[in-house]
Amino acid sequence: KNHSILPLTNRFTEPKIASFFCILNTFLRSQRENLVKIGMSADSNTVNKSFWPVKTALKEKIVVLYDALFSGDQPWLDNGHYWDDFFLLKVNAKYLLEELERTYFDKPAVLKPQLNTMFDQCLTFINATHRIRQLNAYYTICTLIHTISRVNQRTGFGNPALDFLCGSEGADNKFETLIESVNHTFLIDESFSGSILLKNAAFDVILTCCTTMLNINENMLMDYMMANVNLFDSITQLLIRCPASHGYDVCLLLALLLQYHKYDTSNTYIIRFSVFDDEVALTSLAQVIGSSLNEYNKAYDIERTANESSSWWSSLTTFVGSAIQSGAGNRRMKKVDDCLLLAFYEAVHLNRNFISALTHTATNSWTTKGSSLSSTDALPPLIPVLSSASMLAVQDQTDFSNMDDFSGSNNLLSVFLEYCSIIQQFSKNEDMCNTTKLCYLILLCITEDEFANATMHDENVTFTVYLHKAPMRHRKRSSEKNLPSRPLAVALLDLMMEFIWSHMMRNFPFDLYTKCIGIIQRILSFQKRTRTRLSYSWRPLWNALICLLKFLQNCESQLTKHRDLFQLASRIINIFNLFITFGDTFLRTPEAYDEVFYETVRCYHVFDNLYAFAFRYANNDNEFKESALKLMVNLTNIRLITNHFNTKIETFSNTQNNPLTENQVLDLIRNNYDTLALKLHDDLDQYDNYSEKTSEASFFANIIVEQGILLISE
């Protein structure tokens, strides 16, 4: 360097040595000037300046092969083993995706023949016997399909996109071959090395094909899956053979396949799934769903317990930190769980045989089959954990390998009820509100089934169901875990009652309340129809319904702007009419029948105000006039009861110096039944059967669109 070389020349007196250093100094100066000219020198502000050239970054071999392909080269013409070497190298999906997108717009004429060749070679090596080449072929074809669908999102994945991907000639045969190869991969024995990774890659390909379009009904690749009758058999066999490794993927794929033109007769999967009666497969499906929900419940309970035992400062920092971090990641976790619930919904909605698996006590008789790969090779689904402070946080994984936790005294329905009690606490959030709605639709389908109702009311089939309750100012959070075993119908009624108490708010979830009241009505209709006397304390439920009626009146100005409150109020009044008219057929004791009259008389002012509320709308021209008139008719018996017994109570109280006690009022009610004349209402135990096509078609279409966005972003 300049500052070190020049002083050295003055230290030597020998002419030869001095000449040597002068020449060396001149050489170094010239080299440095050259480096500065070509821009390879260090920054001018750096003290130690190096003249050595910067080395070019090395590329992976697969990246070099990608670059050669995208430039238009055809190296396989000169090298017969080119594709053998190509698929032996690990796929760089990120680089391949970026280069495909860039070349698609810059040099489409060069890319198209290369892409067609790559697609054909992928189909060849997917059926190879070499596991690494087979795996890399799956990864490559998955990236190719995803890229073409991504760059054609605006125009759609139509025939032009299909032609660009695999060529116009033989496209149908190529995709039929692809799906058949996926079927073959699904049926590989688990004892083979790498079978879990290979099946995961096959699932990636088939799920990518399902989500090339956000509107699944416009996805032309779904037609190839509808035409392949073996795919349904393959995924159901996976449920039987390895539910712990691939159960979640099967649920996700099944949920998507059942949504394609689901209201047409062209979807063969709906037909086959509705009559599917393999008890082992259906039990495996129930266990996969139950294990996932059980993991969720346990994680929530652990976090809730930790937050309760922490200091107020820790709770505050947890709330702030979780609120800051809650974002796309949390949303992603929840949507994965929504698709699992969607598979659950389709099972209870379409398949009557699934109800026995739903209510059947789970056992720990089956375990995860071993594999030569470690557990980290599998791709378990991600599942959310709800923070008690921020309401939405994330847990990394759900471990399906430990299925023994979902056993003993739990079944899918008991675990699901606890899950619902967690989710409904956070329904103020729009995403969680949609999840709660999906849960209630599942409960609607369950409560319409006679076998499920019979099992839920069987006092010999009891479960311990812990229902989480939202923290409220007028009550403390219950931490009691030693709960008695009860019929599932008791837990379900408690769940609905908890929702009624905890969701009286200005942003009124009208749709959820409608479904909640519908679930209660279906349970009571079953009890009345079968004369089932459930051991249950009804008075808290009556009080909750009366408070709900009072809330509707108090918030009339805000709630009547967009919703028909009279329709909801009529359903609540019909529940009271069912108790009043037919309570003696399903209430467990005569005292319970007396109590329903007592609560009606005690809160007579709520019913009088409700009648005045309906009368005001019925006498004016407005959109709610018909509903208001119907509500007035439904209130007839309640008004007869309150007028009849209030007269008796007032007459008796005038002879007493002290206010009447509850027992005195109950005695008056018992002694004056014979003078009470009521109107017999018809069809109180009748309800409109749930129909997805007429009421919830748009809701499920939105779920599939959001799921498609999620999978595309992944």
Automatic annotation (TrEMBL):
Residues 480-712 form the Armadillo-like helical domain. It is found in: Membrane. It comes from the Eukaryota. GO terms for cellular component: cytosol; membrane. Keywords: Membrane, Transmembrane, Transmembrane helix. InterPro entries: ARMD3-like, ARMH3_C. Pfam families: ARMH3_C. PANTHER family: ARMADILLO-LIKE HELICAL DOMAIN-CONTAINING PROTEIN 3 (PTHR13608). This is Armadillo-like helical domain-containing protein. The lineage of its organism: Eukaryota, Metazoa, Spiralia, Gnathifera, Rotifera.
